[in-house]
User: Fold ATP-dependent 6-phosphofructokinase from Scophthalmus maximus.
Amino acid sequence: IPAASVSFASTDTRKFFENLSGTGKSIAVLTSGGDAQGMNAAVRAVVRMGIYVGAKVYFIHEGYQGMVDGGDNIKEATWESVSSMLQVGGTVIGSARCKEFRSREGRLRAAHNLVKRSITNLCVIGGDGSLTGANLFREEWSSLLDELRQQGLIDEEAARSNSELHIVGMVGSIDNDFCGTDMTIGTDSALHRIIEVVDAIMTTAQSHQRTFVLEVMGRHCGYLALVSALACGADWVFIPEMPPEDGWEDSMCQKLSESRSRGSRLNIIIVAEGAMDRHGRPVTSDRVKDLVVRCLGFDTRVTILGHVQRGGTPSAFDRILASRMGVEAVLALLEASATTPACVVSLVGNQAVRLPLMECVQMTQEVQKAMDEKKFDEAVRLRGRSFENNLSTYRLLSYRKADSELPNSSFNVAVLNVGAPAAGMNAAVRAAVRVGITEGHKMFAVSDGFEGFYKGQIKEIKWGDVGGWTGQGGSLLGTKRTLPGKHLDKIAEQMRIHNINALLVIGGFEAYVGLLELSSARDRHSELCVPMVMVPATVSNNIPGSDLSIGSDTALNAITDTCDRIKQSASGTKRRVFIIETMGGYCGYLATVGGLAAGADTVYIYEEPFDIRDLQANVEHLTQKMKTSIQRGLVLRNENSNENFTTDFVYQLYTEEGRGVFDCRKNILGHMQQGGAPSPFDRNFGTKVAAKAIQWITRTLTDSYKGGRVFANSEDTACLLGMQTSVSVQHHRIPKEQWWLKLRPLMKILAKYKTSYDVSDSGQLEHVTRVRPRESNTTSAI
Assistant:
């Protein structure tokens, strides 16, 4: 639909993929190695994008084994054949570990099977082993063709027309052990499984005052163990990259008994399956259990999570990641030439980038080499910035020093939640309180936002008070939407009474406006001349200055899960369309990204105006769809996308226009999007951002402490801490530049709309950097 195509600025510099045609090309997609949730989303994206650009797309079933065996293992894919795959875990086209492909004879048979079908573009989804195999196959390609020609299996013409093999890889592995990408497909879903189990175990451990030792997967990579330890506030974690110091047995037991004596009823210890001590002896879950029983006599149980971690439905993040990578992979294949090296599509920050496959593989092998040579700091560094960040945050939060060892800063820092509740707020408060105490501050908790502030509901909060907070949804401090503007005198008075030297506000748009009000009143109230920082926490993800906010990932998963169930309810009744209303205020983030993760046909948002002609075209599109084998439709509408085209209006319009072709149902998802236990991402994001916020407060307090008091009234002492690169003004509570708007055309393509897709960001092959670029944790002056 022309009306729905997305317009961007300055047409001349951009290139659109309309110029990239796949006509006459054949692409084959395979999944290989261990399965991972989200592989199906990647396969679906490759197939649909391939068909969209006019290429033929083939499934290769059972990984490399299917390529070697040929026959029915290599089948042409259709648009409908990848329908309903998005929400399925594992890989629908099968995966196998293949010995034969390791031999030259095996690769010769595989090459023959590809040439028979003129397939010269391969998209491989798997781990580093699978990708290395693909690269070797490409290097040998011309010699394999020569050999086939000599044996008379192919003719001169076939050899000539299939002379180049192009390869693009996507990393599907729950271990997140591949250098060059922040996240591999499946990692986030595996974390979801681990956290679900840990939350369940915590309730039973609490009842019996037990210690639990949990063993998680990850081969030689400690990512899953480290991040899940951070997300559940585990007492101790063992990972291969950082073996514990000698004498760890005593210090671990001492820590466990200290936490019990402070009133905790349980201990959680997480062990990565590849964990070792400094002498290369494996640290197994049983070894840890026996130690705890012997030294402390605690009732201790072991739980090995095993293959549960590979199973289940992919999380929203993995579906989006895999869909973006799949589309990017097809673009990379279309642009490949004889001289471009085989590449992997990877994620850096919020950007899909292409990196030379072998550079990534070599760097991944270097990590293993560093670990073998006991250069552990080097191994951690090679794992990349996000791994280092997780490790340093875990260290910061995990161990409480004795009061005598703490610095005494004599500063008082207050923490409050403002706006609607968002999952992950409590994790942020916990991190802030504990890092604050470690830095020597006295931490104060304010109940019920700015309302509780001016009423004086302020009390000191200690280390033990925030135990077990990471996994709790909502806001335990209590939160209100009240703005401080009308109560500035009372708030200033409370700041004076409690001698508050710095403010940390965790919340949504009201928190943003509230801090603006406080900072602009500094000239009237000297008490407000203190460092103030805001950490964005709102399901709507509409805070200017940050690409993501705490709580939006949990909300996204709630939307995706519900859409999955709703789609399933239509499997019996054919030809049904669901109209689903999501939250998000005026920000279309939840609707758009939720739509991409749930496989929606259309999404209506405020940022992209639509009129009756668009609605009509969308109904027509669904009418066409009902003639295929996929007889159901999913339409998402953001709550404020249009004041006149309400959800009821859209529902009635679709019902009337679709009469005789499909029937409609409507769902308003409502407050379930604000509830629930926080997702692993929100727990970690909340924890890391709040820890950084307190470190910023400490630095700013030190800088602004003069003549025996804190005085901070410059612009850069009231700021917002977020993840992002550039900041611009907003209107209607939404930032101007939205990174996720670029995902809209992607969603349309995967739903079979003709649209324009800006590919000017992609296409350049970048290089793996030794030291990764600084994550732009921008603090922007409010």
Q: What stands out?
A: The CA atoms of residues 406 and 470 lie 24 Å apart. The longest strand covers residues 412-418.
